[in-house]
Amino acid sequence: MLSVDEALALVLEHVEPLPSVNVSASDALGMVLNEDVISDVNSPPHNKSTMDGYAVVSSDSGELRVIEEVAAGDVPHHAVTPGSTTRIMTGSPIPEGADAVVIVERTETIDGDRVRLLDPTITAGQNIMPLGTSLRRDEVVLTRGTEIRPVEIGLLAEVGHTRVEVTPWPSVAVLSTGNELVPPGEVPTAGHLRNSNGPMLTAAVVRTGAKAIHLGTAPDDKQALDQMARSGLEHDVLILSGGVSAGLYDLVPQILTELGVEQVFHKVRLKPGKPMWFGVKDSGERRTMVFALPGNPVSSLVCFELFVRAAIHRLAGRRQVERVRTTARLGIEYHQTCDRDTYHPARLTSDAPLPRVEPVPWRGSGDLRALADANALIVLPAGDHFLADGDEVEVIWLDETCCRP
Amino acid sequence: MLSVDEALALVLEHVEPLPSVNVSASDALGMVLNEDVISDVNSPPHNKSTMDGYAVVSSDSGELRVIEEVAAGDVPHHAVTPGSTTRIMTGSPIPEGADAVVIVERTETIDGDRVRLLDPTITAGQNIMPLGTSLRRDEVVLTRGTEIRPVEIGLLAEVGHTRVEVTPWPSVAVLSTGNELVPPGEVPTAGHLRNSNGPMLTAAVVRTGAKAIHLGTAPDDKQALDQMARSGLEHDVLILSGGVSAGLYDLVPQILTELGVEQVFHKVRLKPGKPMWFGVKDSGERRTMVFALPGNPVSSLVCFELFVRAAIHRLAGRRQVERVRTTARLGIEYHQTCDRDTYHPARLTSDAPLPRVEPVPWRGSGDLRALADANALIVLPAGDHFLADGDEVEVIWLDETCCRP
Prior knowledge:
CATH topology of the largest domain in chain A: Molybdenum Cofactor Biosythetic Enzyme, Chain A
Largest sheet of chain A: 6 strands, mixed
Oligomer: homodimer
Shape of chain A: elongated
Distance between the termini of chain A: 34 Å
Strand order of the largest sheet of chain A: 8-5-7-6-10-9
Number of helices of chain A: 7
């Protein structure tokens, strides 16, 4: 059986970033840039004042005649010469002849036309940002592969890039399977339960940034399953949950194979999540990555975190596709024995010098409630672990709560 | 002048979570729950098998007669007695009389009706999850104040909560001011530059989850500014950038005051970002929080990160509203002298045992490009700092890159 690392490597071997699209810069937030962006301007576009004050010749001192006032958006019309000065605003162009700005707080107005400098000495260049300090025209300011955050949105605007080449988000279909499932709006009768995996995995897809399509529930029935899986194969990723164990009614791998999905692996040495199945289907230009996850909610979410999320991020053009792992210190004793690598739901909290982590009480892969108390997974390789309070363990931060453990 | 902590405390004193709304559970992702959610079911709803196998009496062994097969969604119709067994699937209800499940891999089929158990001893309760292990009917499963992540979406579905009381996202208007600004689609003439703050701050709002409304650019003209600010005051938050320095044309505080916005503070002992202005306006039921940020892009983004983001998260009902601060180790020597608290753009990278941080070369508050190389801010209190390579400093992780430093 494959290890988690081997399985992840196989998933990533089968996925390529989607073909580039051209979108409005305002729609590109969170996407990955697929071109080098070149500036068509210098920034600042002129030697600019970084403060409100008076543009002067730096060798000057004492009283000066105010020859002009330049507001933002205006340009100076007169050169500054010894004995004269121009009132200038933050961001304004420095007039010809001036080589320093004295801030307004270090001056005294004598009358409308005259001002006294209070500083005995003035340094050439003070409070001036030279033309092109931040950006130079024709220079590459953002490179292919950059993730577009708010700062990059600002830079794209600054260089007039209102449209941009990016790798698009994949479309990801989610399909739950199982005769026992009823929709969340219904009251389950004996032997039934509500479909929680569908909404949960759909939300997990939304959180990655990708387009999520919730297909609903398919019964354990060949024809229905076949039909719904077909519609799922029209997307870049199809996530199924349930129907992948060795049970008599676990039809999913068989139906997917009949639909032309080529199996890459079935089963991973992972707890929870062992029965996971992964395959790909190529039709024309489109490759669909098909992940059939176990029906138990905790298993399905762990598989999503480890494999599906990585595939989505790679399709979206990201280089870093795995969640950050970090070292944390156990807050309690913890014993764990398993012949598979284990990812145990856990609660991570801020602490110095290392964050502190405690496994949440977990009563098996069906226990979604335990996962609601968790914001991390403790990673333990197969084997017997008798860990003491204070021992260091490897953890994966889950979800955006990673920002506030 | 206020310190950053004092200014933030004043902002938070003036903000309350928005009134609760009732939304479809699928729209609640990322929002904060504003009710206690009670389960209407037990989970599992019956004593359930956690494996595919045979339900048996645990004192049994050897060959057993298969009396029934129960698929997912079916219920058993016959009691299991010594010498008999029921074929059972993962998730299926345990038949009356049975108290253990033997996994299919530890059995041998003799013929259609008979099976041999390979395990010499069977433990009562093995591979059975008792009714209500994870959730009990009438029990509170999610409490008011919980942030709704994918797991919580799953739990809401499991307990049939298709609609949910949440604190909504605030609506946040963004208005750039300044005669020098042209829209990103235009080529700036002498003295002008493109409006990068508007798109950048709008994207920063989008990233918080809130509804962003980009109002565009207002010139430094009383009438135009008055009119655009009025339309901004119809939202929960109005962010302006530019026009808050001491310059002759910095009209923003004056116009806001005339529009009935009560000033809470002007200027913070902060670099970059000192000229920031904050006020509130109450009109009927709505309170608008008004942040007038400096026009320099780095200043405006730092002020957004420290103050506006916190206000948005508090409006949205979050308890934890500040970004996580962490300790990092400097990767180079770093000297910093300032009479204000300084937040220097920096690059944080993974390292053990502490992340490593380097200030990015930064040529003043107009240098958006430096910020594009940053994923963190180094926090230094006012004063002289001569820090050596390897010294520990406090950093704030910026943006979702916090998840992958």
